[in-house]
Amino acid sequence: MSGTSMDGVDAALVEFSDQKISVIRSSTTPYPDRLRAQLREAIAPGARLSLHEIGTFDVSIGRAFAKAAEAILEQTETQATQVVAIGSHGQTLRHSAESDPPYSIQVGDPATIAYRTSITTVADFRSIDIASGGQGAPLVPAFHDAWFRVAGKDIVIVNIGGIANITVLPAKPSDSIAGFDTGPGNCLLDDWISHIRQLSCDQDGLWAASGNVCAGLLGRLMEDKHILRTPPKSTGREYFNLTFLGGILKQTGNLNLKPEDVQATLLEYTVTSIAHGIRQTGISAKKVYVCGGGAQNGVLMNRLRASLPGSSVASTAERNIEPSAVEAVAFAWLARQRLNLTPVPVTTGRHTLSRILGTVSVPTI
């Protein structure tokens, strides 16, 4: 898959047997600079893509996904014939679960992936959920339930990609899981440092650490309608972006902020909105596992620990799965469930329901 950070394709080679999941290898294949720049332009709030551009993106991203799959097979000396299926989330261009009608657009043509790899490909996991009244995202809580749940212990999984989302795994096995997007993860941090310093990310949060949090700006950010909305809820870069930030900065007036102060406040915004989301669930989690790119940001992780007193916060590496691999592994698992016609718990509506997700593309033999 490739998430809202849009930095490349995360791939994982996964083996399933007797209720056991083994991650053989995971890797990230970066997008070419030109393609990544085009994707960033395509998701801008005012972007208007032609049918030709959408079609080109669909095939180009499909080829990038196929290349990522072929790369990990080559790295592990695995033959395509040994692989049952590829699970592909695709690359989201626009997610609009609150519109009428609601929709979510992912590109990465599964037929292209299937043909180029000669491997059956399962994709389009969101559409049936949206058609039946769900938000269409996040879809990984079902996998979190299968991998991380422990009877007798309340656990929260926090995924910090471009957007942050959480999964609540109650201690009581009969209790339903919950999951939703809490708000921005790395997207505003990446966009601001790119705008000011022409860097793709704030490595380890060091630039944010050099600034001071502005309480006034943070307060205005936390008043956002998505943050305050009761779950279920989902969002994306089409909402949390530089246009959003510019509007908030304009509303707050002249606060004499240095650019690093804005960055420090945006990091605190990610942390505070995640903590707020956890509180919205009413759970007091003793254990919090973090995955996604945010797990590599030491300053962010330390602030998250400080914001969740009483909770032990660690990366998912503690549970034998690298933070960068969790979502790719999740879509391998979702593909397996689809091929086995096994419904999975979906948390995107008012109630947790079980649905069969995904469509199947079979390569020409």
Question: Would you kindly provide a written description of the structure presented here, covering whatever features stand out?
Answer:
39% of the residues lie in helices and 21% in strands. The chain is of the alpha/beta class and 365 residues long. It folds into 2 domains: 8-134 and 325-361, ATPase, nucleotide binding domain (Nucleotidyltransferase, domain 5); 141-323, ATPase, nucleotide binding domain (Nucleotidyltransferase, domain 5, 2-Layer Sandwich), CATH 3.30.420. The chain has a 5-stranded mixed beta sheet, with helices on both faces. The protein has a 3-stranded mixed beta sheet with strand order 3-6-14. The radius of gyration is 20 Å and the shape is globular. 47% of the residues are buried. The model has no long low-confidence stretch (mean pLDDT 94).
Keywords:
Nucleotidyltransferase, domain 5, about 20% strand, 5-stranded mixed beta sheet, alpha/beta, 2 domains, 3-stranded mixed beta sheet
CATH class of the largest domain: Alpha Beta
Question: What is the fold-level CATH name, i.e. the topology of the largest domain?
Answer: Nucleotidyltransferase, domain 5
Spatial order of strands in the largest sheet: 9-8-7-10-11
Structural class by SSE content: alpha/beta
Whole-number count of domains: 2
Report the total helices. Answer: 13
Name given to the CATH homologous superfamily of the largest domain: ATPase, nucleotide binding domain
Report, as a whole number of angstroms, the end-to-end distance.
25 Å
- Which term fits the overall shape? globular
Report the β-strand fraction as a percent range: 15-25%
The arrangement of helices and strands along the chain is EEHHEEEHEHHEEEHHHHHHEHEHEEE
